[in-house]
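ok posting inputs for the fructose -6-phosphate job
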Amino acid sequence: MIVNAKMDNTKSLIFKPAGQFEETRFEKIHNVIFDDSEEASKIVALEIAELIKQKADEGSMCVLGLATGSSPIKVYEELVRFHKEDNLSFSNVITFNLDEYFPMQPDDLQSYYHFMHEHLFNHVDILPENINIPDGTISPEDIYQYCIDYELKIKAVGGLDFQLLGIGRTGHIGFNEPGSHYNSGTRVITLDHITREDAASAFIGIDNVPKKAITMGINTIKNAKRIVLLAWGLNKAKVIQKTIEGQVTSQIPATYLQDHKNATFILDEESSSELIRIKTPWLVTSCIWTDELKKKAVFWLSEKVNKPILKLTDKDYNEYGMSGLIAKEGSAYDLNISIFNQLQHTITGWPGGKPNADDTNRPERAFPPKKRVIIFSPHPDDDVISMGGTFDRLVQQGHDVHIAYQTSGNIAVTDEDARKFAETALTLTSDTKKIEGMLKDIQSKTSNTIDSKEVRSLKGTIRRTESLAATRYLEVPDTNVHFLNLPFYETGTVKKNNLSEEDIDIMCSLIEEIKPHQIYAAGDLADPHGTHKVCLDALFMALERMKYEDAIKDCWVWLYRGAWFEWDSHEIDMAVPMSPDQVIKKRNAIFFHQSQKDKVMFRGDDSREFWVRAEDRNRLTAKKYHQLGMADYAAIEAFKRYYF
Ligand code: F6R
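and the output
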């Protein structure tokens, strides 16, 4: 955990007594960075639990402002645990939720009413009359008065003791979108397009996302006595940087929190990664120069002054806060050569190792010359999107390549596609009952129902056959293609189950069967549904369980990043260049995933098709390598080694 400056006198890990926080040079909001969101959520839940108990001891009510979305889920999980295991009572708690879509029925699966009951209220002893969530069914004529009453109700119970917040990529808090006034109260607001895109996966498509919402105002939020904002993941890094280090502006409403006397931002490593003290610490403090930090600093400087590594001078280093580094290393010349060599040694056209070659300076071992490889792919297409070029090389270089699709990916197939396939199937059989049943299910589906088991299975089959078309194109025998259908994924909705023993067993038995020398897996933690992270956790748990077994004693693990982000240059341990022809071959392999083309259902915050993103990203990595002084490749796929 990293706490920003001036935190020494605080009484709890994150609690900031009013008025005691002095700003650091760049940061205008108190913040604490945790290794991961799980640990952070527990600390936040603890602060809330202590407040509830303190109020109960005083014989008073505890008024909580609550948020929905992915950020607070683990905080609620922990509060439920406190209730069940430590007898934390919510009988003295009054809650006010920040917002609700408008219009919205409470029993709709996407309603915040449903969310709050599912994650918290159904599991604790809060009195129903103490729960307040903006009512998405209110008539447009009554809404103005309704919002005024919501404000008055908060005031009548003494105001919010504690407000929990998430932050949108637009910088919204609650649904106060850019342009919101600092003095605004509870009201109806039109949602920003970006916010609707972010919600699209929960609504199975942006067209189903309501255009409006009722939200508490900035002023309502700022009047809370204590504010804690949670932000996890790379998706939030840019907006967090602007909010904490930028000027107060209505264009990023969260910046209004700079004026609050008792607000803390709780961040994980990814969401804090754009803060100056994390991204470029040498600009603000004297650093402990680890090998990784040295690489990061040199690559950054090379980009900043637009010179390849070998042309950086002592003066360049001195001018950008790295005189200490140069003093330690002797001269720019020595440092440049050392970092240049390290970068050069990441490049290889032999991702499975070059047989019979000296491998001292190669990312992979030469021996054994033919390796058994498992490429784990969270969804049926991440393999080719993220590492199609490397995949192809591994096969062409004679390795025994297995592909393991971890989930069925069924929710990402549109109803239109499923119907098309079902109608085709109908013409091929006289036993039409089952298919007609599926067609009926598809046609009677509303935004509030989930697919029947049969339709899910059809959608899974569509993705399965597309995957096989792609793996056959890359010359992998069908017997080397494994569809794991991990059970955690099979809920039919965007919300998935937690990992179970069954999931880990499935992963372990494949690893046991193949006994791989190499495993490739998605280390991309930014996919909008978190499926990649769960799939990676499943692998880590399997490796942990098997770490002393012979099956993986010679196994190296390489992490690729999915469609959303690439590793930073300093994080790359293996860079596999691609020729223009290989770029086209990879594109063709991606094209076999037709259900994911054109109208991509779950594309996160990027509206480009997957093949376009993949190509841009691989081209950009090559460009960065070139700019640092390496050869000029058409494209590069990048990997980071994971040690277990
Ligand atoms: C939710 C809310 C929003 C979310 C924000 C972040 O009640 O008011 O401001 O907190 O959109 O959402 P997640 O946590 O899903 O990234």
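notes: Confidence is low (pLDDT under 50) at residues 3-12, 16-23. The chain has three domains: 2-13+24-277, 280-344, 372-413+455-642.
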